[in-house]
Design a protein that fits this description.
The chain has 430 residues and is mostly helical. The protein is built from 15 helices and no strands. The chain starts with a helix and ends in a 6-residue tail after the last helix.
């Protein structure tokens, strides 16, 4: 199980347990639908490769675009690129008070280590927006992390603690920026890797915005440090505890306007819409080839009835028959793939909206009737994912339910994918 599945499970359990405590604010029907949608997203992320054709083929198609995508940190807050960090002066002053306080406690070893760490961070602040840390600087930054960690249980003033928090953020920011560069250069390996990378980019975007716009140390809060620490975890170990997943869910809801699962999972929608559109294009091209060959076949057969074919025509006809049979088989396969994938992809968009919107928003859009359907469709899709069920083995009722549901969200799914593609500089299939 990957990190996303673990996060889904943790948030899903939180959603389920919240039904009894907030049932007056959220209907039990919507809460049930959200729980099932969360579980379905988990299964889709974990098993999607099995039942949405071969997703790796889609990934190969978009991988070049993803690898060219610059880390978010290079495209945000350009207005402060030359000015540096607005809070640098207050940070340096605050760091001085931290060091003075530590020396006053006669904790000279810690004080000396802290002084070295703070001086190092001040140095980073001068160039971290313009370049990456060198291998030597990465090693130094790792040492500074340990030093900052040693102060967590110390009795410090609020001002001193704020200074250390901001210094920690900047130190980790430099590390993550460099690590993200390295990951992008190595290439994205699989969907779990991709989800982690994009989650990291989004979290780093928020941290970067904070670092480059903060005017005062007082503007930094524990959530800011949590976000950048979480980004670091996603780059390195990809391990998020249940507590961290639930906390991150709350922060993404407050700051990004969407819960954790849509925050991350919508990136799959981008890849799958790209895949689905590629299938549509391939099906159309194959259909045109079949039509052209059928016209030629019919013309030759009519000519054969009237008179004998020339040797050249006979050769064309004999080679045409196996070619046409192969194309028709391919067309049938593509038709099945495009129809099933279209249904799953845009059904997933419906799950996103169930997780993102409250009952009032769904009612305003005349979609509240879908709440019950969402839970049922999630059940079917989980059955498909869990048991590796082929689309054609679903009952006609199940296929129709998923297809009708998907049709409702098709245009919104395409719009979401288009928006995400623009953010990373990717061109969608025409």
């Amino acid at each position: 199980m990957g990190w996303f599945s673990r996060a889904c499970s943790a948030v899903g359990r939180a959603v389920s347990s919240a039904v009894s405590s907030v049932g007056r604010a959220v209907s039990s029907g919507l809460s049930w639908a959200r729980e099932k949608a969360s579980q379905a997203c988990d299964w889709i992320a974990e098993k999607g490769e099995r039942f949405i054709d071969n997703v790796k083929n889609a990934y190969r198609a978009v991988k070049p675009f993803l690898e060219k995508a610059r880390p978010w940190i290079n495209s945000v807050a350009k207005i402060v690129a030359k000015a540096g960090f607005p809070w640098a002066g207050s940070l340096i002053a605050g760091m001085g008070k931290v060091i003075d306080g530590l020396f006053a406690l006669e904790n000279s070893p810690v004080a000396k280590s802290m002084e070295k760490a703070l001086r190092g961070v001040i140095k980073f602040a001068q160039f971290v927006k313009q370049r990456y840390l060198t291998p030597e600087e990465v090693q130094e930054a790792e040492e500074y992390k340990e030093t900052f960690a040693d102060t967590e249980n110390m009795h410090l003033s609020e001002e001193q603690r704020k200074s250390i928090q901001l210094a920690q953020m900047l130190n980790n920011y430099g590390l993550i920026k460099t690590q993200l560069r390295d990951v992008l250069e190595m290439g994205v390996g699989d969907f779990q890797h991709y989800l982690r990378l994009r989650a990291t980019q989004k979290l780093l975007d928020e941290a970067d915005h904070k670092l480059t716009t903060t005017q005062s140390i007082d503007e930094v809060n524990p959530d800011d440090l949590f976000l950048i620490n979480t980004a670091e975890k996603l780059i390195s170990t990809a391990e998020l505890s249940e507590q961290d997943a639930i906390k991150l869910d709350g922060i993404t809801q407050n700051r990004f306007g969407k819960p954790l699962i849509p925050f991350v999972f919508e990136e799959l929608i981008l890849v799958w819409v790209q895949k689905q559109q590629s299938l549509e294009k391939a099906w159309k091209e194959c259909s045109q080839e079949v039509a052209k060959d059928k016209v030629l076949k019919n013309r030759l057969e009519v000519a054969k009835k009237i008179s004998d074919l020339t040797s050249e025509e006979t050769e064309v006809y004999e080679s045409l028959l196996p070619r046409l049979a192969g194309l028709e088989t391919k067309l049938q396969r593509l038709d099945k793939e495009r129809r099933s994938m279209k249904s799953y992809v845009y059904a997933a968009e419906g799950f996103m909206q169930i997780l993102e919107k409250d009952e009032g928003m769904l009612e305003a859009e005349d979609k509240d009737y879908l709440i019950d359907d969402s839970a049922e469709i999630a059940r079917i899709i989980m059955k498909v994912a869990q048991n590796n069920v082929d689309w054609d083995t679903l009952s006609s009722e199940e296929q129709s339910l998923i297809t009708d549901y998907a049709n409702i969200f098709e245009e919104e799914g395409k719009a979401r994918a288009e928006h995400l593609a623009q953010e990373i500089g990717m061109e969608m299939v025409a």
